[in-house]
Amino acid sequence: MPQPANDNRPAEFDAAILAYVPGMHKLARRLRPEAPGHVREDLVQATLCQAFATWRSYRPENSPYTWLQFIMRDLSRDDIKRQQKTAAFKLSLAGVSVRTTPPNQEHAADLALVVGRISPELRADMLDVAQGAPLAEPASRRGTSRQRVEQILKRERARLAGLERQADTRRDVAYGRAA
User: Fold this and answer.
1) Is residue 5 part of a domain?
2) Rounded to whole angstroms, what are the CA distances from 66 to 26, 31, 63, 74, 142?
3) Do 113 and 83 share a domain, yes or no?
4) Which of 36, 70, 81, 167 is the 20 to 30 A CA-CA neighbour of 117?
5) CA–CA separation, 45 vs 56, rounded Å?
6) Which of 33-37, 56-60, 83-87, 155-159 has the lowest mean pLDDT?
7) Which helix or strand (DSSP H or E) is residue 31 part of?
């Protein structure tokens, strides 16, 4: 469900948060000194998006910059974990050169067929997580906890794996011949 652009945030809140953008850029450089500039800029933008999306959780008696620091540190930690997880999945064989080829039309067609078998209400969440998004994103969209989203996605993966076991080929799963 799309959320309103402003969600009735006070203009003073927006102005106060935007006043800290230069400090957020400095913090991004401290948190990710080795990262390219566009990655640090993405971190700042993601922090702003998170702050504006969760503005109701901000307590006026606290420092806005401290609140933004917590958000940015969490997002940075999630991004680093995602990168480490991606690096761990890379295939490496001693003495063997592994080459990859760019995806072609057949790969795209296979992917579309498999994605079509994901329950429609879970499709966006599963694709976001598959692309490396933290579980917090689908959890906030659903208004539930990360653990609950993890349970839901795990159950859907098990359902898809069951279809795979029943199918003769992956295309049988995609075309629905294995129900």
Assistant:
1) no
2) 14, 15, 5, 12, 27
3) no
4) 81
5) 19
6) 83-87
7) helix 21-31
b/e per residue 88-124 (b: at least 16 CB within 10 A): eeeeeeeeeeeeeeeeeeeeeeeeeebeebbeeebee
Domain C-terminal end among 87, 117, 145:
87
Per-chain mean pLDDT for the chain: 82
Token pair, residue 64, equals 């806005």
Query: Do the Cβ atoms of 153 and 123 come closer than 8 Å?
Result: no
* 131 φ, ψ (degrees, to nearest 5): -85, 5
Domain ranges, residue 150: 106-175
- Pick the most confident of 25-34, 83-92, 95-104, 140-149: 25-34
Q: Tell me if 130 is assigned to some domain.
A: yes
114 contacts: CB under 8 Å, gap ≥ 6: 160, 170, 173, 174
Domain count for the chain, please give it.
2
